[in-house]
């Protein structure tokens, strides 16, 4: 508040004292020790790695916060358009290492904690991952925050502060077991803002009232109220003073702590029931990726988060005293999938019911404000809410949706008179039993731009699920922004040796801010010394992963074997089953070979990782098959190093940072047309790994950038899929004979009780093989053979690796963010002078 600000003449003193940087190593150390001694009340006699982490994090945080304060003040003064990125998931991973690198004090910290008796790597390793997301969608949001800050865009993220992030995965007797992820016992990176709280209402009823002029307005009242409390997280950019804000909302009961009346009458359980109910809203992240759950609590989460965020955004706009019609010049809101689509309805409600705008004035502002990003074409992932559920939870919002739909359909009717079919197809309300609200349609209608996340995906949504909307709105509303990844975390932080080598050849680290500079590596591709160092760095990363695998699974993997990695959420469409079937085929073949033949084989380690949604039985069965194959293969004396099968437990962001630099080949083998983009494909290639993949998602653009010779493509094309599925449904497809052999081996009990795998096998047969494993299997095996042959030629492999990295510039999240800024948000960067 202005009245609390320090008088002008005193501000110089204040400024001098509010430092954003350490003056040197000594100051850094002093601050670490001060925090260990005074904030944690520990001493040198009981300072373990965890205490050293805490002290270091707190010291770093102190500087970060000052930059953050300054950035927020600067952005407020600049008074420019801000970007608000609404995402139910932010898969941030760890923060300390990233903060040290982004603020340029990693070396100071290494030396500083070194002299205090600690290794910086051990200190960093004590941090708990912030795992507020499922997979690609959540990690994309985190990469985008990094790029927005690095490029000096005034941007805020808005999300939920889940008490429990994505569950921890344990493998017990070969099966996935879920363990809750309570991550908040020490989190130095968040700041509660108890003064920033918003009342959010659910349920209740709507009454119509008319004033003296007969103007009708709506009153929504009588519902339950829950309070949203803001928790802020600073997001530092790389080599810039810009530090943006991520605001996460936490729920708590609105009235008092608990019910004293109940407490005093001895009803202790009853006295805290309301409190618990309120706190349930932000308690846990829904652990599904690419599937919509349709549960009331999920809808509550969505409205709670959206309403709190919009209240905040509107309040900030109001402070500028601008007319409402300028709202879209100050505010760009990006919807990360349909999860925040209610924001469209909520903003319309605020304008009409609270601020007194007309429907048309309001709708014009709303549609100029929002952009919607679609991340999937899978029908089971498209969100639909039952009308009765919605009616009870958000009665006023349902009325507004009906009205949006009415005006929309009137427009469609005008454009396509007499096309009743069309009206039914594009209606926000699906006439099912019960009726449901199609959130994607609402998002399209309420936004000015809709984008997919890779070229093929953006073309597919226009040709399939959103086809009618092209006819209605014209093609210009639909666009593509291919995903990207932040090279700061996914190269510099995860693979510092490779980053240093690249910097030594390119004359510095500018490539971390302009990834196209990697092109300069092409000049070095024939340099013997460089190539040697390049491959030594890869080997070192493999040795590190092999050690990790040995420590955690007791499996001994030879670092010189070909590391074949597939790490991502377990999903039928991603086809980990095709991978493990391929491993079984390889095993059966090895078992048939004579010793002289065996000698010619390339040793391979097949490494898997990823979580299955707790209720997704088929995905859990796939995990069980992988672990079962490992149990057989890894202990088979005939096989030795020629094949190892590893399942790495609890795949997450910090493990990805160890795993990704260590791949020779990684697998991105979704059924063509199902993986919207994929982003780990980009991470693996940026770290000098080659990929085997289908013509799907961003694989296609990666191929275009790095060249066909540097990628192993397999399988049918998206355009073939419909016809193939048709043939399966009419029983016209014989199973691939090699796949038949694999199924026979499983059914014969070679990998334990075959009944466990009934579902998996029948999906291929009676289930009509929806993901076309049989159709792509022979191509997959042939391509894997080509991988083996290529791997034998170490020189050729090194060339492919270097040339690929040199051409990955396009996949920087910075490029993606600049495209969003230009084509969707219409915003400019706001750099600060030092
Ligand atoms: C992923 N989607 C896409 N969804 O599958 C991937 N879904 O191709 C793409 O690269 C990535 O988004 C980024 O665009 C997801 O990760 C989810 O996690 C999800 C979560 C909740 C509900 C539905």
UniProtKB/TrEMBL annotation:
Keywords, in A-Z order: Allosteric enzyme, Carbohydrate metabolism, Glycosyltransferase, Pyridoxal phosphate, Transferase
GO cellular component entries: cytoplasm
The reaction(s) this protein catalyses: [(1->4)-alpha-D-glucosyl](n) + phosphate = [(1->4)-alpha-D-glucosyl](n-1) + alpha-D-glucose 1-phosphate
UniProt-listed InterPro entries: Glycg_phsphrylas (IPR011833), Glyco_trans_35 (IPR000811), Pyridoxal_P_attach_site (IPR035090)
Keyword Glycosyltransferase: yes
E.C. no: 2.4.1.1
EC class of the enzyme, as a word: transferase
Alphabetical list of Pfam families matching this protein: Phosphorylase
BP-aspect Gene Ontology terms: glycogen catabolic process
GO terms assigned for molecular function: glycogen phosphorylase activity; pyridoxal phosphate binding
Positions where N6-(pyridoxal phosphate)lysine occurs in the chain: 683
Reported cofactor(s): pyridoxal 5'-phosphate
PANTHER family: GLYCOGEN PHOSPHORYLASE, GLYCOGEN PHOSPHORYLASE, LIVER FORM
Its job: Allosteric enzyme that catalyzes the rate-limiting step in glycogen catabolism, the phosphorolytic cleavage of glycogen to produce glucose-1-phosphate, and plays a central role in maintaining cellular and organismal glucose homeostasis.
Similarity annotation: Belongs to the glycogen phosphorylase family.
Name this polypeptide is given: Alpha-1,4 glucan phosphorylase
Provenance organism: Morchella conica CCBAS932
């Amino acid at each position: 508040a202005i009245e609390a600000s320090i008088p002008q003449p005193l501000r110089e003193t204040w400024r001098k004292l509010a430092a954003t940087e350490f003056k040197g190593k000594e100051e850094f150390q002093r601050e670490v020790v001060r925090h260990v001694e005074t904030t944690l009340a520990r001493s040198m006699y009981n300072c373990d790695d965890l205490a050293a982490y805490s002290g270091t994090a707190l010291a770093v945080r102190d500087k970060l916060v000052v930059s953050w304060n300054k950035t927020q003040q600067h952005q407020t003064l600049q008074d420019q358009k801000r970007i608000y990125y609404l995402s139910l998931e932010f898969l941030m991973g760890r923060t300390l290492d990233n903060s040290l690198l982004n603020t340029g004090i990693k070396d100071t910290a290494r030396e500083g904690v070194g002299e205090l008796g600690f290794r910086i790597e051990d200190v960093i390793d004590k941090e708990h991952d912030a795992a507020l997301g499922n997979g690609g969608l959540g990690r994309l949001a985190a990469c985008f925050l990094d790029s927005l800050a690095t490029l000096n865009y005034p941007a805020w993220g808005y999300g939920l502060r889940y008490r429990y992030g994505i569950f921890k995965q344990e493998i017990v007797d070969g099966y996935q077991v879920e363990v809750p992820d309570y991550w908040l016992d020490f989190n130095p990176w968040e700041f509660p803002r108890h003064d920033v709280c918003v009342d959010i209402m659910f349920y209740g009823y709507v009454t119509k009232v008319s004033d003296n002029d007969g103007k009708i307005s709506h009153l929504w009242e009588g519902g339950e109220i829950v309070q949203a409390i803001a928790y802020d997280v600073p997001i530092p950019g790389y080599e810039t003073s810009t530090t943006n804000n991520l605001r996460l909302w936490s729920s708590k009961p609105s009235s008092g702590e608990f019910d004293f009346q109940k407490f005093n009458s001895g009803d202790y359980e009853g006295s805290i029931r309301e409190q618990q109910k309120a706190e349930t809203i932000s308690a846990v992240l829904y652990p599904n990726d690419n599937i919509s759950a349709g549960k009331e609590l999920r809808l509550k989460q969505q409205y709670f988060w959206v309403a709190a965020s919009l209240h905040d955004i509107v309040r900030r706009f109001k402070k500028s005293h601008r007319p409402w019609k300028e709202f879209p010049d100050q505010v760009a809101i990006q919807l990360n999938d349909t999860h925040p689509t209610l924001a469209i309805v909520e903003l319309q409600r605020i304008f009409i019911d609270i601020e007194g705008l007309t429907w048309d004035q309001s709708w014009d502002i709303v549609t100029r404000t929002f952009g919607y990003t679609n991340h999937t074409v899978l029908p089971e992932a498209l969100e639909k809410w039952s009308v009765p559920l919605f009616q009870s939870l958000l009665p006023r919002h349902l009325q507004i949706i009906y009205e949006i739909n009415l005006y929309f359909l009137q427009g469609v009717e005008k454009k396509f008179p007499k096309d009743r079919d069309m009206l039914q197809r594009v209606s926000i309300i699906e006439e099912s039993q019960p009726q449901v609200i199609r959130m994607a349609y609402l998002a399209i209608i309420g936004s000015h731009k809709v984008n997919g996340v890779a070229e093929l995906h953006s073309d597919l949504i226009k040709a399939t699920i959103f086809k009618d909307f092209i006819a209605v709105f014209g093609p210009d509303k639909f666009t593509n922004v291919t995903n990207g990844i932040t090279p700061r975390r996914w190269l510099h932080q995860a693979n510092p040796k490779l980053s240093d080598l690249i910097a030594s050849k390119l004359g510095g680290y500018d490539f971390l801010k302009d990834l196209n500079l990697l092109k300069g590596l092409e000049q070095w591709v024939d340099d013997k010394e460089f190539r040697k160092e390049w491959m030594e760095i890869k080997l070192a990363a493999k040795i590190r992963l092999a050690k990790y695998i040995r420590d955690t699974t007791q499996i001994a993997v030879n670092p010189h074997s070909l590391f074949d990695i597939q790490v991502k959420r377990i999903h039928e469409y991603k086809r980990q089953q095709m991978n493990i079937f391929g491993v079984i085929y390889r095993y059966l073949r090895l078992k048939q070979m004579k010793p002289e033949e065996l000698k010619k084989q390339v040793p391979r380690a097949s490494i898997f990782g990823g979580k299955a949604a707790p209720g997704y039985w088929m995905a859990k069965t796939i995990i069980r098959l992988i672990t079962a194959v490992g149990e057989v293969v890894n202990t088979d004396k005939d096989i030795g190093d020629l094949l190892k099968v590893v399942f790495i437990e609890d795949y997450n962001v910090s493990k990805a940072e160890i795993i990704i630099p260590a791949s020779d080949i990684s697998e991105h083998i979704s059924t063509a047309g199902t993986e919207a983009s994929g982003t780990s494909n980009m991470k693996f290639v940026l770290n000098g790994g080659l990929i085997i993949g289908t013509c799907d998602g961003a694989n296609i653009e990666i191929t275009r950038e790095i060249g066909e010779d540097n990628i192993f493509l397999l399988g049918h094309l998206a355009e073939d899929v419909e016809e193939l599925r048709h043939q399966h449904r009419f029983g016209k497809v014989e199973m691939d004979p090699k796949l038949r052999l694999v199924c026979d081996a499983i059914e014969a009990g070679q990998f334990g009780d075959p009944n466990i795998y009934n579902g998996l096998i029948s999906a291929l047969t009676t289930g009509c093989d929806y993901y076309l494993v049989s159709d792509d299997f022979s191509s997959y095996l042939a391509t894997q053979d080509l991988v083996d042959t290529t791997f034998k030629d170490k020189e050729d492999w090194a060339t492919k690796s270097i040339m690929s990295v040199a051409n990955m510039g396009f996949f920087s999240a910075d490029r993606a963010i600049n495209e969003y800024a230009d084509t969707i948000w219409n915003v400019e960067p706001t750099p600060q002078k030092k």
